Amino acid sequence: MPRGNFLLGIESGAMSFWSSETWISASKIHEYVHRFDKKNLSDGAYKLSLGSEAIVSSGYSELGSENAYRRLSPTEDLKLLPGQYAYLITEERVQLTTGVLGFINASTGIKLKGLINVSGFHVDPGYNGKLIFTVFNAGPTPITLHQGQQIFRLWLSDFRGQGSVKKEGYDSLPRDLADRLHGTYPSPFALSARLNELKDEINVLRTDLGKQKDDKAQLGWYVLIAAIFLLPFVASLYTSMYGVWFGDRMKDYLESSRAKLTNTEPPVRKQQDAAPPAPLNPPATSPAPAANNPTTDAKQDESAQPKGP
């Protein structure tokens, strides 16, 4: 029969938690909690105290786990902000036999503030060492802790059969646990705080944007005033440089347009005088007299003379 069942005086197979009286009777044979004090019993639960060490996460910030390790004292408080994780270790050592199983949790008073145990809820049979709790502040306000504060509870129960081997536990918090808490752990309240920060940043950006809009509007008025004063000067400068050339171009364009409307050829400016046009009905011309030919004239004279008998 397992040892726990013998102490409880009940048959094997009926699992139940130890009462305060069972704690006291069993502790006379074996010290399940180092420096056992029956004053720490309450309805079968033994009150465990917070030890002198803690490792705290950085919350929702990006600062990492630097300075995560904290050394506690009865006069120096540990403040857990909303959204922070922490590794906590007990002041007492737990020494279970292989026939006893332990159950752990945070006290009701500290849980009502928002501190939640997320590390597990049992202690293996045969465990020997201090207990490490992983807690999370899920509440809306910071939670203040100090060394010696009885914030943990331990229940014991008989374990059917015998455990495999005894397990050596911890005497202090391993420093490498700080690396596991590196990074961000958002909770609803941490996200709310971060959201408020972002709102403040957005308001600042809106204020800056409004100032920029005012500056742009003011700059627009400056440009308009400058344009009003510079327009006459620019117009006179443009006229003096391009007025004549532009006037000639416009005159040519207007004359060309007028000629197209009247179906006449547009006059060509600055051209030489053209030859007078030929008459529409020129007078008929007689053929020019033939030139005098001496041979022909002699023959005509001979034929004109009378022939003799």
Q: What is the residue-mean pLDDT, rounded to a whole number?
A: 77
Q: Spell out the CATH superfamily of the largest domain.
A: Deoxyuridine triphosphatase (dUTPase)
Question: What is the share of helical residues?
Answer: 25-40%
Radius of gyration: 59 Å
CATH topology of the largest domain: Deoxyuridine 5'-Triphosphate Nucleotidohydrolase, Chain A
N-C termini distance? 205 Å
Contiguous runs where pLDDT drops below 50 for at least 5 residues: 1-12, 60-65
Total domain modules: 2
Largest sheet report:
10 strands, mixed
Transmembrane segments: 219-245
Pfam families: DCD
GO molecular function, one term: dCTP deaminase activity
Organism: Methylorubrum populi
Report on the structure:
- Its EC number is 3.5.4.13.
- This protein has six helices and twelve strands.
- Strands 1, 2, 3, 5, 6, 7, 8, 9, 11 and 12 form a ten-stranded mixed β-sheet that branches. The protein has a two-stranded antiparallel ribbon with strand order 4-10.
- About 35% of the residues lie in helices and about 20% in strands.
- By secondary structure, it is an alpha+beta fold.
- The protein has helices spanning about 5-10, 20-25, 110, 175-180, 190-260, 295-305; strands spanning about 40, 45-55, 70, 80, 85-95, 100-105, 115, 120-125, 125-135, 145, 150-160, 165-170.
- It has two domains: about 5-185, Distorted Sandwich (Deoxyuridine 5'-Triphosphate Nucleotidohydrolase, Chain A), CATH 2.70.40.10; about 185-265.
- A hairpin with a 2-residue loop joins strand 1 and strand 2.
